Amino acid sequence: MVLPIVWFVLVAVLFVGYFILEGFDYGVGILLPWVAKTDIERRAVLATIGPVWDANEV
Known about the structure:
The protein contains four helices and no strands. By secondary structure, it is mainly α.
């Protein structure tokens, strides 16, 4: 009975860590419809994750 709880906690901690570390990319994608109204604003918002994008995908 203890082993399923341990695995659940382990997987939950790993998922939370993944979403915290990838939060910048996800946050930009989620907020894009509300933050960027024009094509120029959209490109500017997406350009902010450019330098970080490849580093997070390693």
